């Protein structure tokens, strides 16, 4: 064992002990950024290997979240903007996502598909829907899998769903406008019935949310991490939790 290994282990244990005095976030959202850049800086022949390494990291993260008592994890795997990538880039990524979702299902995680599934290829959408249906009654941690996801699109979909639901009841536009409030829209979001995210993490050093959980993140704490997603370690996760726990959360300005 090299010198860095025991030092890393000791630092990890120290962080874990300190977390006992802090509040644990119920819902953690993660923008899994930096797979392509990690592959390039690691000298790998294909960026696909970066996406594969990033997919493997997901299962480590879920284990860490389970250990500390997180109830919901939202993983942003693919944005609506990403769907416009050239097929030679997009197709391998979709296959990795499909394999990841199947593994989530096999391992017993409760999968909740999020995103504009109608924009996805039929095979990918089918895998997402099947995993959601097969695991819907599983206990424990909920894993929101955001594929073909955009925050603005989610809000538009929520409003559309709300209008369709109310129209089916015979509600007029005038009646709906009279009593519409924020909760009516929230009930039609992809995360309906779940707590809003307490903590959002973005890897790779980018300091923006790019519309991730646009509606739900009004009061979220945000943690930006410099490392690329495949290199994200438990220490980085514990640091994010420490940062969250040390903040004095204000639900206003």
UniProtKB/TrEMBL annotation:
Its cofactor is Mg(2+). InterPro entries: UPP_synth-like (IPR001441), UPP_synth-like_CS (IPR018520), UPP_synth-like_sf (IPR036424). It holds the Pfam family Prenyltransf. It comes from the Bacteria. One of its GO terms (cellular component) is plasma membrane. PROSITE patterns: UPP_SYNTHASE. GO terms for molecular function: ditrans,polycis-polyprenyl diphosphate synthase [(2E,6E)-farnesyl diphosphate specific] activity; magnesium ion binding; Z-farnesyl diphosphate synthase activity. It is an enzyme of class 2 (transferase). Coiled coil: none annotated. Substrate binds at residues 34-38, 51, 79-81, 85, 202, 208-210. Mg(2+) binds at residues 33, 221. Belongs to the UPP synthase family. Z-FPP synthase subfamily. Homodimer. Catalyzes the condensation of isopentenyl diphosphate (IPP) with allylic pyrophosphates generating different type of terpenoids. This is Isoprenyl transferase.
């Amino acid at each position: 064992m090299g010198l860095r290994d025991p030092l890393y282990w000791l630092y990890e244990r120290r962080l874990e002990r300190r977390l006992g005095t802090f509040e644990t976030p119920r819902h953690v959202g993660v923008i899994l950024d930096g797979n392509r850049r990690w592959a390039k800086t690691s000298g790998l022949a294909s960026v696909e290997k970066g996406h594969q390494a990033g997919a493997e990291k997901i299962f480590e993260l879920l284990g860490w979240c389970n250990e500390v008592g997180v109830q919901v994890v939202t993983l942003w795997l693919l944005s609506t903007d990403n769907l416009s990538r050239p097929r030679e880039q997009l197709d391998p990524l979709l296959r990795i996502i499909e394999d990841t979702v199947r593994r989530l299902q096999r391992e017993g995680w409760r999968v909740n598909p999020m995103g504009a599934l109608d924009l996805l290829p039929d095979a990918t959408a089918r895998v997402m829907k099947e995993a959601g249906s097969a695991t819907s009654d599983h206990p424990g941690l909920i894993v929101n899998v955001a594929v073909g996801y955009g925050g603005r699109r989610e809000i538009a979909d929520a409003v559309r769903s709300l209008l369709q639901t109310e129209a089916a009841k015979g509600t007029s536009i005038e009646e709906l406008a009279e009593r519409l409030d924020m909760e009516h829209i929230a009930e039609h979001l992809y995360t309906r019935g779940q707590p809003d995210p307490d903590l959002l993490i973005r890897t790779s050093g980018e300091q923006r949310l790019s519309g991730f959980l646009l509606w739900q993140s009004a009061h979220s704490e945000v943690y930006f991490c410099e490392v690329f997603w495949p290199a994200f370690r438990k220490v980085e996760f514990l640091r994010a939790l420490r940062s969250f726990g040390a903040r004095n959360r204000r639900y206003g300005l």
